[in-house]
């Protein structure tokens, strides 16, 4: 059986680099959120390009600033945002696999297109699962490279399960998202959608929204027209991925992977998983629009996406 060995050393940590597998499921009844990659699309492609199975842990790098040194030869891939990645100072193209030789330095600088990049290594990163997953949730102190929910820090060593893989594999052009373009986010209308005024519903799906600077892995606040709801209060209920809550100020909040497990604000609906992925790559001030879709449309889109990673 292959043993985990030292693969990459952290020489500069950056603001937020976390180890993420597909997420932690079946534990929300305990008040534990799912974690996992906020951009499922970029994470899946990084793993796919090095031949990893669905769910293999990869590194989520937010805002850049991370610098790693290879402890041995590795086949890796970078997908998702363009964080001005370099290998020994030479620019790296994303959405493809390549070899990093022992002693080479892989660095991520400032965001050029998008917000979060994903780094996968052939064979996957190794960590001890907590509640069935290595997904890192800093707030809850769970998972990650050390099992205690810590972001990467200078001096950390990432262990890997090394495996041979082809290099030079590239994602098709249509999969390589230009995150600078305005995003259209598919939304499933929710149970309380009928409680919003007609004007608010028209504005919700026809007016542009801006990504607020109050955004993290827990959720993203959108600013735009005020949405008015007739519900003065409601009993807290379970919150799923992508839930779009509307607090009293009328500015919606789209909840992502590190969200709370229950909430008491009325919901406009829920973004689809792929819409959550797209939103997670938006920088503050970026324009997005909401598009109502049916359950059948949402399922067809997600099944089509997953079929490519079977």
UniProtKB/TrEMBL annotation:
Pfam families: CT_A_B. Residues 29-309 form the Carboxyltransferase domain. Gene3D superfamilies: Cyclophilin-like (2.40.100.10). Keywords: ATP-binding, Hydrolase, Nucleotide-binding. One of its GO terms (molecular function) is ATP binding. Coiled coil: none annotated. This is Biotin-dependent carboxylase-like uncharacterized protein. It comes from Halomonas ventosae.
């Amino acid at each position: 059986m292959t043993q985990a060995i030292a693969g990459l050393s952290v020489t500069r940590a950056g603001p937020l680099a976390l180890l993420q597998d597909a997420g932690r499921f079946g534990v929300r009844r305990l008040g534990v959120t799912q974690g996992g990659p906020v951009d499922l699309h970029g994470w899946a492609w990084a793993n796919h390009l090095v031949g990893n199975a669905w769910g293999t842990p990869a590194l989520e790098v937010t805002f850049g600033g991370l610098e790693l040194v290879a402890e041995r030869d590795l086949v890796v891939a970078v997908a998702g945002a363009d964080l001005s990645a370099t290998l020994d100072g030479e620019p790296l193209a994303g959405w493809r696999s390549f070899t990093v030789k022992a002693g080479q330095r892989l660095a991520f600088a400032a965001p050029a297109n998008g917000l979060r990049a994903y780094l996968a290594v052939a064979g996957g990163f190794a960590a001890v699962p907590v509640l069935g997953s290595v997904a890192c949730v800093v707030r809850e102190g769970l998972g990650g490279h050390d099992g205690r929910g810590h972001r990467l820090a200078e001096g950390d060593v990432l262990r890997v399960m090394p495996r041979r893989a082809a290099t030079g594999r590239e994602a098709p052009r249509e999969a390589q998202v230009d995150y600078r373009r305005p995003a259209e986010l598919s939304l499933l209308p929710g149970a309380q959608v009928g409680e919003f005024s007609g004007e608010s519903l028209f504005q919700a799906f026809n007016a542009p929204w801006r990504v607020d600077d109050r955004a993290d892995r827990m959720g993203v606040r959108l600013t735009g027209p005020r949405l008015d709801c007739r519900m003065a209060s409601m009993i807290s209920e379970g919150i799923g991925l992508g839930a779009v809550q509307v607090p009293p100020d009328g500015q919606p909040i789209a909840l992502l992977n590190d969200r709370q497990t229950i909430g008491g604000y009325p919901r406009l609906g829920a973004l689809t998983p792929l819409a959550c992925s797209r939103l997670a790559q938006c920088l503050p001030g970026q324009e997005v629009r909401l598009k109502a879709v049916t359950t059948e449309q949402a399922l067809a889109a997600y099944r089509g996406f997953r079929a490519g990673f079977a």
